[in-house]
Amino acid sequence: MRAVVYEAFQGTPELRTVPDPSPSRDGVVLRVGASGLCRSDWHGWMGHDPDIRLPHVPGHELAGEVVAAGAEVRRWRAGDRVTLPFVCGCGACPECASGNQQVCDHQFQPGFTHWGSFAEYVAIRYADGNLVRLPEEMDDVTAASLGCRFATSFRAVVHQAALRGGEWLAVHGCGGVGLSAILIGRALGASVVAVDVGDDRLRSAAAAGASATVHGLRVPDVARAIQELTGGGAHVSIDALGHPTTCFNSVRSLRKRGRHVQVGLMLAGHRHPPIPMDEVIAKELRLLGSHGMQAHAYPDMLGMIQRGALDPRRLIGRRVALAESIEALQRMDEFAGVGVTVIDRF
Questions:
Q1: Which residues, at least 6 apart from 1, have a Cβ–Cβ distance to it below 8 Å?
Q2: What is the pLDDT of residues 7-30, one digit of tens each?
Q3: Which residue numbers delimit the Enoyl reductase (ER) domain (predicted)?
Q4: For the whole prediction, is pTM greater than 0.85?
């Protein structure tokens, strides 16, 4: 099969022919129909993820068709169209037993712990507990765009923050996760303030339904600007970028008893950001992490999409060929363009 492979962190990936994968006893092999390009893939290529072993094939936002299944797989067979969370649970640890596969003790992550979906085929472990059947009307590109960004954002907004209609949501960073959060927040009946440092991204945020936008480099105090726009602060604030500045501003922009959700990854030198803990105490704020979404939680999200309450297709940006993904991956730190870039030609 053809796959994008890198031999060294920050080295130029290459498009190569490598052996086709075989399914494990509990796994399947998928023919990849589409794969998203995510900033998490860039972090992995940079060497920020300790789970990656070289040589490596990136890619964790995917949709495809089952072409082979292991002897222990019961729920899936060749021809089934599926997607999956970027964190797959083992099905046997205490976290999986409690329904929290997104923090599984022995998690499988295509594109990180194992080779991923920048390839014609990808092998997936623990298939029975982690694959999600796609609605017949949903194409592969749309399904791949749900990937880690839309699904992660859905769980952060709906399940972790428990955002309600009539509340204010502040979104810091208007990339794929942030724009997803805006769409989801508006679908729930919330008002949204979007923060970014790019005019094009703020325009996209407004088009997605943000009631107000804040340019992070043009106001002296982002948190104060949000407090003024919302009449006292956001009920829920999300750091969708993953940076010490956006994390700090997100917490400070909350009203009393507000909820901060950290969705953007804090890697490398950003692992331990400063937090205004005095405000956390005085305002009785809640700080929540959010790490993907379990396969069993997908029906809520897919149901809203099928009813027309959510339309993730609005967030799809560029469609590229597998060979073009090499340059796109290397340039993800430039934050060029808006929307989700998806590989749809292999």
A1: 17, 18, 19, 20, 21, 119, 120, 121
A2: 999 999 999 999 999 999 999 999
A3: 11-343
A4: yes
